[in-house]
Amino acid sequence: MNYSYSTFDFIPCEMTRKCMQNGCWALDQINMWDWLRAYEVDPTKGFMFSTNPEIYIIGNMMENPDAPIPMRHSGASFALTMRSLSYIAINGFEAYNKLFITNHEEENNIL
After folding, report:
1. In the structure, what pLDDT confidence band is assigned to residue 100 with cuts at 50, 70 and 90?
2. In the prediction, which pLDDT does 4 show?
3. In contact, 35 and 3? CB cutoff 8 Å
4. How many C-alpha atoms does 90 have within 13 Å on its Cβ side?
5. Helices marked H in 1-111 — which ranges?
6. What backbone torsions phi and psi does residue 100 show, to the nearest 5 degrees?
7. What is the DSSP letter of 10?
8. Are 64 and 70 in contact (CB under 8 A)?
9. Closest C-alpha to 49, from 16, 22, 15, 76
10. What is the pLDDT averaged over residues 82-103?
């Protein structure tokens, strides 16, 4: 899918933006967008506690020190990034962009 880094400029949090850039890079490198699109998350384990070998492959690529934006994920940051990447794989980038912006507009209206 090759999402460029500039496509995440709408994310105000630098760390979240870097996690998404890193995750997209990793999935592009190992060509696993189609796999992620078809993957059914175990509702009792999610991504954080998954023992699926492909999840390990994705996580290892995300933490590759040669990545353009290298990351060291906690379980929570990995799970959140994977949920977002899964949403993109299933629904497309435009749907993710719209959902993200809509949710942040709602948050700002509450505050």
Report:
1. confident
2. 56
3. no
4. 11
5. 14-30, 33-38, 53-62, 75-91, 93-110
6. -60, -50
7. T
8. yes
9. 76
10. 92
Q: What phi and psi values does residue 2 have, to the nearest 5 degrees?
A: 50, 65
Longest C-alpha distance within the chain, in Å? 42
**Full-model pTM:** 0.87
| The pair of three-digit structure tokens given for residue 63, joined into one six-digit string | 């933490």
- Token pair, residue 24, equals 């997209």
- At a CB cut-off of 8 Å and minimum separation 6, what does 5 contact? 21, 68, 69
C-beta of residue 32 within 8 angstroms of C-beta of residue 54: yes
Q: Which residues in 35-69 are b (16+ Cβ under 10 Å) and which e? A: ebeebebeeeeebbebeeeebeebbebbeeeeeee
Q: Is residue 48 within 8 Å of residue 76, measured between CB atoms?
A: yes
Higher pLDDT, 108 or 10: 10
CA distances to 5, 26, 39, 62, 74 from 50, in Å: 28, 18, 12, 16, 14
Give me the count of residues in the chain. 111
Structure tokens that stand for 19 in this block = 């996690």
The Cα 96–Cα 80 span in angstroms is: 13
